[in-house]
Amino acid sequence: MNDHRLTTRRALLGCLTFAVGLVWMGCSPTTPVGSTIVVGEFASLTGKEAVFGQSSHKGTLLAIEEINQSGGVLGKKIELKTEDTQSKQGESATVVKKLITRDQAVAILGEVASGRSMEAAPICQQYKIPMISPSSTNPKVTEGRDYIFRVCFIDPFQGTVMAKFARKTLKASKIAVLTDVAAPYSVGLADYFKQQFIADGGAVLIEQKFSSGDKDFKAQLTAIKAMKPEAIFAPCYYTEAGLIVRQARELGITVPLFGGDGWEAPELLTIGGKSMEGCAYSTHYSPDSTNPMVQSFGQKFKSRFGGEVPDAMAALGYDSVYVLADAIKRANGTDGPKLREAIAQTKDFEGVTGKTTMDANRNATKPAVIIAIKDGKFAFVETINP
Ligand code: PHE
Q: Which domain holds residue 332?
C-alpha cells in the first residue's frame, strides 16, 4: 500500500471514529453540540421535604417552558436537568457534581433547604459554575463564595421580622425557642431571632433542642410549659412544626407558636390540624397579592399544574430562572466567569417575589410576608419591608 492510500484510509477511519464518537455522545451530526443551554437543578423531590422540592421544581419548570416557548435565550432552548436530593444530607454535593461534569450544566439552581445548598456551594465554586439558590436563607450559603447567589432575603432579616412580630403583634415579652439543631437553617434563624428579641427588650426564658426527623417533642414542650412563656418560636420545617404545635396543645399549652418560612406547606395544616389556629409564620410571598405580575403567575401556574396555587418556593423557583436567563443574555454567553459577573450585576430585576438586586454578598433584599392560620386556612396578615 503506498503512502497516499494509507493516508486516505487513515483519514476515512478518523472520520468514522469521529462520527461514532458523536453518536456515542448522544449527538447526531445534524444536532450540533451545544444547541441547548443546559441548566442543572437539585431539589428535594422525594423524602421528608418533598413538598418544598416539588413546589420549587414546578416554578422552575414553568419559567423554563415560558422562556422556551418565546424562543429561548440567545436563540437556544434551555434544557433543564433535575436531580433529586431525596431530602437527605450528603446527596447534594454528589448530584451537583454529576450535573456539572456529566450534563455540562452551565449554571445550577437549588436548593430550598439551606443545609443542602451549603453542601453544593463548594462544588459549584470549585468548577466556577454559578449557582442560584431560590430560597435558602442562611447567610452561610453565599458567604465567601463568589459563584453562589440567591434570589431571596436572608435570615438576619427574617429573624428581625419575627422578633418584631412577637413584640408588637403578639405583645409577647417572654418567649421560648425550640430549635432543630440538625438544620443549619433552624440554628441560624433561632440565633438571629434571639439577638433582635433581646435587643428589643424581650427575654428568652428557655431554648430547647431537637433533631429533624424527631416525632416526639413532649419532653421539650413540658420544660417550656414550666417556664410559662407568652409565645413559642419554632424555626423549623413544616413536618416537625405541625407535630410540635399539636403536641403543645395536647399538653395544655395555649400560647401562640410561630415560625419562619420553613412552615410554608399545606402539610402544616394536615399534620397540625385544628391546633394550628392562631399560629403564624413569615415567608417570601403571598398568592393573594394584587400585584398584576403575581396574579398572572398564579393563573399560569394553576393552569399548568391542575389548579394548584403557587406558594413561596414555587414563586422563588420561577424568579430564579428569569434572573439567570436575564444574566445569560447580558453575558451574551454561558462562560462561567462572565455569567457570574452578569448575575452579580443584577439590578432591580422585576419578578413575582419583588425586585431582585444582588448586593455585594450576592444576596437579594426583599420584603417578608406574615401569614396566620385562621379558620383552618392560611391568611395574609402583613408585608414587612426591609
Ligand atoms: N429558607 C429555608 C431554608 O433556608 C427554606 C424555605 C424557603 C422554606 C422558602 C420554605 C419556603 O432552609
A: 36-153+290-366
